[in-house]
Amino acid sequence: MQVLQVQLEIRPDPAEVGRARRWVRSRLAGSGVADDEPLAETLILLVSELVTNAVVHTGCPALLRLSFEGVCGSRSGAEGVAGGIVRLEVVDLSPCPPVPRHAEGDETNGRGLELVDGLADRWGWSTEGVGKRIWCELDRCPAPAPCGGGSSVAAPVIATAAAEGTSSAYGGMAAYEAV
Hints:
Organism: Streptomyces sp. SID12501
Strand content: 25-35%
Helix content: 25-40%
Number of domains: 1
GO molecular function, one term: protein serine/threonine kinase activity
CATH class: Alpha Beta
CATH topology: Heat Shock Protein 90
Structural class: alpha+beta
CATH architecture: 2-Layer Sandwich
InterPro entries: Anti-sigma-factor_SerPK, HATPase_C_sf, HATPase_dom
Order of helices and strands: EHHEEHEE
Distance between the termini: 27 Å
Number of strands: 5
Keywords: ATP-binding, Kinase, Nucleotide-binding, Serine/threonine-protein kinase, Transferase
CATH superfamily: Histidine kinase-like ATPase, C-terminal domain
Protein name: ATP-binding protein
Largest sheet: 5 strands, antiparallel
Strand order of the largest sheet: 1-2-3-5-4
C-alpha cells in the first residue's frame, strides 16, 4: 500500500479556512480525485468544518494533515489504485476535547461535528502532545470494472511522500509540506 501525506500549517485566523480549502483542492488533482467528484466535495466540506473548529474554538495554531492511502492491486495486468482511504486530520495545541452539539432551529453554530459524523465514514479524536488530533476518513470507492470484457486504464498510483520532519512553533509537530 502506498501513502501520500501532506500537511499545512494553519494560523489562528478565520481567513485560514478558505486557504485550507484551496490548498486541499490543489492536492486532490495530484491524487487522482477529480475536483467535481462527490468525494472531493465532501472532503472540502469536512476541511471547512474541522479547520473552522480549530480556528474559532482554540485560538491556537494548528496543522491540517491530508493523507491518501491507496490499496494497490492488479486490474487487467496493470497496477493501479483500486480503492483506499482519504484521511483528514487537524492537530491543535488546545487540550480541550471536542464537544459535539446539536443546533436548534435558526442557530448558526453547533452543526460542525454533526456534519462530520454524518459525512465521514469514520471520525474521532485523540490527544497529541499537549493538544489533540481530530480526524475523519472517507472511503475511496474502487473504479468500476469495464463492461464487455474490454481492457481498463489503471488509475494513477499514489506516490509515496518521503519528507523529513522539521521542528516548528507547533509543539514539535513535524511539517511535511508547509505553505
